[in-house]
Amino acid sequence: MGMEDVVERAARPARVSESFIDLAGVEKTYRMGRLDYPALRGVDLEIGAGELVAIVGPSGSGKTTILNLVAGIDRPTAGTVTVEGRRIDLMSEEELAVWRGQHVGVVFQFFQLLPTLSALENAVLPLDFARRGSRRERFERARGNLALVGLGDKAGHLPAELSGGEQQRVAIARALATDPRLIVGDEPTGNLDTVTAAEMFELFKRLNEQGKTVLYVTHDRELAARAHRVVSIRDGVVAA
Predict the structure, then answer these.
(1) DSSP 8
(2) Measured in whole angstroms, how far is the alpha carbon of residue 92 from the centre of its chain?
(3) Fewer Cβ close by (within 10 Å): the C or N end of the chain?
């Protein structure tokens, strides 16, 4: 199956019975000096609960902007962003921070681990911020997540003592800390070799099979084509 066969078409967008993510008429304009840069120009997009969706498109097309809006990291200039029936675009900054910490796990391209903390300490951070459970319970959960991603024996290692693939596994364990229903990845395999990237995708697939909705941006056409659905973004709109 080629990329063209799985790309969502703007004229006939795929619809699912249960909308988990709903973007309606979303626009996003960034101010750059005296100029306005329109990153999104009116995006309508629905993603169902339990879907595994890849977002593709050229650099500057608006892929990461969509991811940031869905994760509550950024806000739209116009339109609405609804996740699990809640209008997150209407939340205050404080409400967004709490909501994001409880409901979204984010995985970045460059891992974003704190270099002076061990793998276990990095994996437990979201639980510390959320003040969920006792200290012992937090570390037990973090150890469990490290074991889940295959790093149960590397809990005490610093990021510098881990390979790129291992650091990304720690980042995924951290994203799983609060057991969110939504996992988003911004080029999560972009800094990895081909074999390790494939392993990371298999981990995402396994999480999806466990019921999590997974949304990721990628330039890798092969990894994109393995998603349930591919959404192509070009010049700030959903395009075929």
Answers:
(1) P
(2) 21
(3) N
CA atoms within 13 A of residue 190's CA, in its CB half-sphere:
14
The token pair at 7 is 């790309």
Q: With the CA atoms of 173, 177, 183 and 184 taken in that order, what torsion angle do they form, in degrees rounded to the nearest 10?
A: -70
Burial class from Cβ neighbours inside 10 Å (0-12, 13-18, 19+) for residue 177 reads buried
- b/e sequence 76-85, b meaning 16+ C-beta within 10 Å: beebebbbee
Q: Which residue in 26, 34, 35, 97 sits closest to 67, CA to CA?
A: 26
Contact 72, 60 (CB under 8 A): no
pLDDT (tens place) for every residue of the chain, 240 residues total: 444 443 333 333 333 346 899 999 999 999 888 898 999 999 999 999 999 999 999 988 999 999 999 999 999 999 999 999 999 999 999 999 999 989 999 998 888 999 999 999 999 999 988 888 889 999 999 999 999 999 999 999 999 999 999 999 999 999 999 999 999 999 988 888 889 889 989 999 999 999 999 999 998 888 999 999 999 999 999 986
| Neighbour tally for 38: CB within 10 Å | 14
**Residues 142 and 127: beta-carbon distance below 8 Å:** yes
DSSP type of residue 73: S
Residue ranges in the chain assigned as alpha helix (H): 3-6, 63-70, 93-103, 119-130, 135-148, 164-175, 194-209, 221-225
Nearest of 195, 191, 196, 194 to residue 149 by alpha carbon = 196
